[in-house]
């Protein structure tokens, strides 16, 4: 079976079982605590590729996909999704009653979208009344839109009637400080600049009565191995949840480099920014899926707070397979 349910008393034991049964690069579809310990639903992207068959039942040498999945795979590849994720979807379909040996089964597109949606973990709590995300730090490389994303989230919180404070650790670029100060003034939200971990702890204590505290951080190259440990120390001092902002147009290799660099911070969720600026967001999205990281939001423009959407796995899956265009045409 492609998708495996693995249970163990502790999370480390469950992860060890995943590595043993699905390999070290397994896709984590779901991880949750149960009364008996932990449950992980995992998939192995290294599963052997199914042999495509021609109409006579012989091996089709010109395609790496089954005929019934070919058009969906082509659309998703153009979208940017990696083969590892598409293999997981196709393998799951082979375990059902849909017809993949030839094109035309009307059930295949919808079921494929449901399988892909199941691989896209969603983090809903970023905007819910959950103490885990009360203090949220936005992190990520330079130029990915952290400051604008923070303003969108803070404005949405204000619209919900929550009391908001905005802090920044980004003292590297004065323009960023002034931009965020302007957003805070528009929202009538308190704003403070923090230079050290001590400043951050003091500011958080001062705003302990707020429902939400958003923390902006300096954008750093994933290759800047000296700066990231300092950022980690600051965020741990403030006990901040972390939201990684990753540009949707980031190439797969670069997205993996970013994730390698920032995962030691203990990423709680990912927001894909600048979705409107790329035609192939699937490379960044696929890197997030491969790591089993939850997605919270997608940013689709610069308008504050309108251009941010809560991640919707089904809609993203339909976009990846270009099913929305099919619906519009039908």
Polypeptide structure, described:
- By secondary structure, this protein is an alpha/beta fold.
- It has three domains: 3-43, no CATH class; 49-120, no CATH class; 131-311, Rossmann fold (3-Layer(aba) Sandwich).
- It has twelve helices and eleven strands.
- The protein has an eight-stranded mixed β-sheet with strand order 6-5-7-4-8-9-10-11, sandwiched between helices.
- The radius of gyration is 22 Å and the shape is globular.
- The model has no long low-confidence stretch (mean pLDDT 88).
Provide keyphrases for this structure.
330 residues, alpha/beta, Rossmann fold, eight-stranded mixed sheet, 12 helices, 11 strands, 18% strand, globular
Which helices and strands occur, and which strands form pairs?
Blueprint: E1 3-8, H1 11-22, E2 27-34, E3 37-43, H2 67-79, H3 83-94, H4 107-119, E4 135-139, H5 146-159, E5 164-168, H6 174-187, E6 191-193, H7 197-206, E7 212-216, H8 227-237, E8 241-247, H9 252-262, E9 269-273, H10 282-291, E10 295-299, E11 308-310, H11 313-320, H12 323-329
Parallel strand pairs: 4-7, 4-8, 5-6, 5-7, 8-9, 9-10
Antiparallel strand pairs: 1-3, 2-3, 10-11
Helix pairs in contact: 3-4, 4-11, 5-6, 7-8, 9-10
């Amino acid at each position: 079976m492609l998708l495996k349910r693995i249970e163990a008393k502790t999370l480390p034991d469950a992860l060890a079982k995943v590595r043993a049964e699905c390999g070290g690069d397994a896709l984590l579809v779901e991880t949750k605590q149960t009364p008996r310990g932990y449950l992980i639903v995992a998939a192995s992207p290294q599963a052997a590729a199914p042999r495509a068959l021609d109409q006579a039942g012989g091996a089709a040498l010109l395609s790496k996909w089954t005929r019934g999945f070919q058009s969906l795979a082509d659309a998703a590849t153009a979208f940017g999704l990696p083969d590892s994720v598409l293999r997981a979807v196709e393998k799951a379909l082979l375990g059902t009653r849909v017809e993949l040996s030839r094109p035309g089964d009307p059930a295949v597109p919808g079921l494929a979208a449901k399988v892909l949606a199941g691989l896209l973990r969603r983090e809903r709590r970023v905007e819910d009344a959950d103490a885990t995300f009360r203090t949220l730090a936005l992190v990520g490389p330079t130029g990915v839109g952290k400051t604008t994303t923070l303003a969108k989230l803070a404005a949405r919180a204000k619209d919900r009637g929550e009391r908001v404070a905005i802090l920044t650790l980004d003292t590297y670029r004065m323009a960023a400080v002034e931009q965020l100060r302007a957003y805070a003034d528009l929202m009538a939200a308190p704003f403070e600049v923090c230079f050290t971990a001590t400043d951050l702890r003091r500011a958080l204590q001062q705003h302990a009565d707020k429902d939400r505290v958003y923390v902006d951080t300096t954008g750093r190259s994933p290759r800047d191995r000296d700066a990231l440990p300092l950022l980690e120390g600051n965020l741990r001092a403030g006990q901040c949840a972390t939201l990684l902002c990753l540009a949707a147009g980031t190439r797969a290799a670069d997205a993996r480099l970013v994730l390698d660099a920032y995962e030691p911070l203990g990423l709680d969720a990912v927001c894909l920014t600048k979705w409107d600026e790329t035609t192939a967001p699937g490379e960044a999205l696929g890197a997030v899926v491969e790591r089993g990281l939850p997605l919270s939001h997608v940013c689709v423009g610069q308008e504050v707070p309108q251009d941010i959407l809560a991640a919707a796995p089904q809609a993203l899956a339909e976009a990846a397979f270009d099913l929305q265009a099919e619906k519009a045409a039908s």
